[in-house]
# Entry
Amino acid sequence: MNNPNISISCLMAVLSAGVLSAETYYYVGENSTKFESPDSWSTTPDGLTAATSAPTASTDIVIGSAAAKTSFEMSYSGTSMGSLTLASDYAGNLFRIAGWNGNPANQPFRIAGDLNAEEYSEGTERTFQMASNIDTEPEVGMGMYIGGNINAQSGNTIKLGSQETKWNGQLSGYVEVGTAGVAGSGNINVTAGANNASVRFGAAGPVNSAAAGIDNPNVLVRGVVNLSSTGAGKASIVMYSGGYYTAAAEKRSTFVKVGGVSGKGIIYGDTASTYISGEAYPIQTSLVFANSGVSTFEGNIAKIWTEKTDRRGQDVSVNLVMEGTGTQVIKGGDVVEVTSVEVRSGRLDLSNPCLLYTSDAADDLIG
# Structure
């Protein structure tokens, strides 16, 4: 029964949850400036408003017009950020993230979101490079984790893992793209235009390349590598392995596991000189397909891209391995030049006009 002396009022509170936008920092540092130094950053694109603190794990980083127009590197030690963008108005032809002796492998470089390289029109090629100048034993690299996607537009090359030599980033460490269990993450989108665009994977191991293999890859891409072109430029995947070795034991192999390759482009091998006392050591790379769905790649797979003019080494063997639950289709190119083909699980369809191989790949294809 209602009591007229009691008034009950219901207050409905409408709570509006504001979405906090991530802070954006713009790099203004000089060559080899440390990432963690506030002097390296501005909070405005023109570089005129100095940051009062170093970036945090949620800060979005932009390398743009405020940065020096030269080739330089930014050192790091256990650095994390929200996203990293190499802006179209950064006119330098190289930006390198470098680790140094004393930075242990358990302090990797982490990007929670995307790594973006916007269209570059100042020249024909601009390079983002992950490197580690470690020349002491044990040979342990930094490692790089990208939680979102990688977007490489026309005029850009994204180099992940090993670089030119042991003393110039050969030991860059394990690379992982994508976050486990997060749908839509881990894709690498390579979009050529007027100029070429590429992603280059290299050897450097989780500990060292001797520990790497099909089940323990140097590079893990949880999503799909998507290749496309809107102009005359070519989109490509470069399987890099090798360096200037002083002993046969230092020979490295690259193992890259991807969730598929889709679109039109080129997959080819590359290496620096590997001659030791006049003897050339075989160079091996393995592209492992871990597809859960169907991906279709149209184009060539070659031991070396014949149009590449700065080649300095021997041919690089390209091995194809299928071990997903889905299907990888490779078709439409003039040649698929591989050393071996192995299907552990899933389906690998090769339907090119000409299939060249340099070992016993025929048994793998038939079986």
The mean pLDDT is 74. The two ends are 84 Å apart (CA to CA).
